[in-house]
Amino acid sequence: MEHSTDPISRLSDAECWEHLRREPMGRLVTRVGEVMDITPVNFVTDGESIVLRTAPGNKLSELSINSSVLFEVDHFDTEMGWSVIVRGQARAVEEEAEILHLEQLPLRPFIPTLKPVFVRITADSLSGRAFRFGTEPRREDQQDG
């Protein structure tokens, strides 16, 4: 197998889910009309969906108006990094059996506030990239393609 010299590589859907399962924090992007919001949230995966908890307020109101969301998670160190974006649909979980299931997941608020509403994001599509860091190439060393 040939080793790629490209510093950016595309992640498969399976690799995206693998990365998502290892991180506790992400960013939820919502949009209502011309207003977009981005909110850091802690989350877990449940199969191939994302679960977070929230309280009644702006975030929940926005999701009830427009359920289409973006969810982004990334991780970086000094040598490499990755980023995954989930495009999907979010909904407040209301069915008692599903709530009982979600209560068993290792999802607790990071800050000491009550967040009684579970939100499930079902992915419509995933995109992910892995990055290998290094020194910027010299302009004169680049070949025109």
> Unreliable segments (pLDDT under 50, ≥5 consecutive)?
none
Mean pLDDT: 91
The shape, in one word, is elongated
Q: Which structural class do you get from the secondary structure elements?
A: alpha+beta
In the CATH hierarchy, the third-tier topology is known as Pnp Oxidase, Chain A
Assign the CATH architecture: Roll
Gap between N and C termini: 25 Å
Task: Explain what the structure shows.
The structure is a single chain. The protein is α+β, with helices and mostly antiparallel strands. It has one domain: Roll (Pnp Oxidase, Chain A), CATH 2.30.110. The protein is 18% helix and 45% strand. Strands 1, 2, 3, 4, 5, 6, 7 and 8 form an 8-stranded antiparallel β-sheet that branches. A hairpin with a 3-residue loop joins strand 4 (44-45) and strand 5 (49-54).
Please specify the SSE layout and strand pairing.
Blueprint lengths: L7 E3 L2 H10 L2 E8 L2 E8 L1 E2 L3 E6 L3 H8 L2 E9 L3 E13 L3 H8 L13 E16 L13
Antiparallel strand pairs: 1-8, 2-3, 2-6, 4-5, 5-8, 6-7, 7-8
Give a quick set of tags describing it.
alpha+beta, Pnp Oxidase, Chain A, elongated
Short description:
This protein has 145 residues and is an alpha+beta fold. The protein has three helices and eight strands.
